[in-house]
Amino acid sequence: MQQEIQAFLLVPKDSDFTIKNIPFGVASKADGLPFPATIIGDSVINLAKLEELGYFNGPLFSTLGSKVFDNGNLNKFVSLSRPYWKEVRSQIQSLFSTGSQLENNKEVLAQVITPVQDTKNHLPITIGEYTDFYSSKNHAFNMGSIIRGPDNAMQPNWYHLPVGYHGRRSSIVVDGTDIRRPWGQVKAPTAEKPSFTKCKRLDYELEIGAVIGGAPNNLGEPIRVNQAEDRVFGFVILNDWSARDVQVWEYVPLGPFGAKNFASTISPWIVTIEALEPFRIQLPEQDPEPFVYLKEKNHTSFDINLEVLIGTEKTPELEHFTTSNFKYMYWSVNQQIAHHSVTGCNIQPGDLFGSGTISGTTKDGRGCLMEYTWNGKEPLVLKSGEQRLFLEDGDVLEMRGFAGEGENRVGFGRCKGKILPALDENYFQQ
């Protein structure tokens, strides 16, 4: 049961940002520098200003001896530990609940609050490293069925370890950033040789990103699976854009490269484990039993509803067509962390782990267009009559995620991007 608190700030009906949430991000005013922030309803709250005014005065935070929110990112805060994160979140809830010392303090409220429409979001952290996993069984089976047939859909290693690869952090962008269609080498199944061309099979991937926090483990010392959650600061929605035709040609033998490195989009607000705790759920038993380093005392995820919407140049109004859920995970985030570090890899605060595409059990729960259209054989038909096999120029793709409802709703906001045309081929002329 969540603590019964009410915000004195206006919170619209079905807002993602109730006082039960308190996510963390970075925002700026039109004429100012980025600042660490949280949001309640439509009010963006300046954490740097609250810290400057002395409102973070709990027993832990008050002993730090230096400012934490004085940079244009959350990295200092993320590098602390869960007791500090919980203390700050609890103090924010107390400050902005009915009957608090700030409720009628117009002078302070004017300094710390900006209407959301007057702000711009930025990447919440300076991302260190990015790793993407492949941990939804439904997605793995569907993709394997498309590529190898249902009898050979699952690779032999899949049930034994969380499959993953290292991605590119420099091209991770925040919600609202336009995405340019990439170029690359492709080879059609019947072609004798590859060609250099614009990507014709541009896709999205519906994922959750785990933001790593806390002190780094020492090189050579793995993180134990039952302590791994202490390293999770919170979660974002993640769209790992994919160039499917480029990927098919390039991925042998080392895995994805250019097909995955041109852009990934995240939602701007990091939602904490504390906010999601009421929505924790048990995951199905794993078979075969995981090795000891992956065996959790509690194999859990969170009941986070995930949605995908699309708008086109012809019909800009967004249309919902996919519903999935973070409960459709086989390997948990804790297991991903344990496997990533089992070799002794030192995982750093500010790293980002992608869950891998999260697919449900029905067609409208498939987490990417390659699945949804079964590799271009079953078109997505929109209400306007338009059809999509893969994304076209001018398409707008938006992801949303939330848990709970009403006053207990905890959401992520949006994760949105518009597809821009590829550069003209003359760009590559020497």
From TrEMBL:
Q: Which reaction does it catalyse?
A: 4-fumarylacetoacetate + H2O = acetoacetate + fumarate + H(+)
What are the names of the required cofactors? Mg(2+); Ca(2+)
Question: Which keywords does the record carry?
Answer: Calcium, Hydrolase, Magnesium, Metal-binding, Phenylalanine catabolism, Tyrosine catabolism
Q: Per its record, what are the GO molecular function terms?
A: fumarylacetoacetase activity; metal ion binding
Q: List positions binding Mg(2+).
A: 240, 260, 264
GO biological process per UniProt: homogentisate catabolic process; L-phenylalanine catabolic process; L-tyrosine catabolic process
Q: Where does Ca(2+) bind?
A: 132, 205, 207, 240
What residues bind substrate, as annotated?
A: 134, 148, 247, 251, 357
* UniProt domain Fumarylacetoacetase N-terminal: residue ranges: 20-124
Q: Where are the transmembrane segments?
A: none
Record-annotated active site: 139
Which pathway does the UniProt entry assign to this protein?
Amino-acid degradation; L-phenylalanine degradation; acetoacetate and fumarate from L-phenylalanine: step 6/6
Q: Which residues form the Fumarylacetoacetase-like C-terminal domain?
A: 131-409
Give the Enzyme Commission number: 3.7.1.2
Q: Which family does it belong to?
A: Belongs to the FAH family.
Q: What is this protein called?
A: Fumarylacetoacetase
* Protein's organism: Paramecium tetraurelia
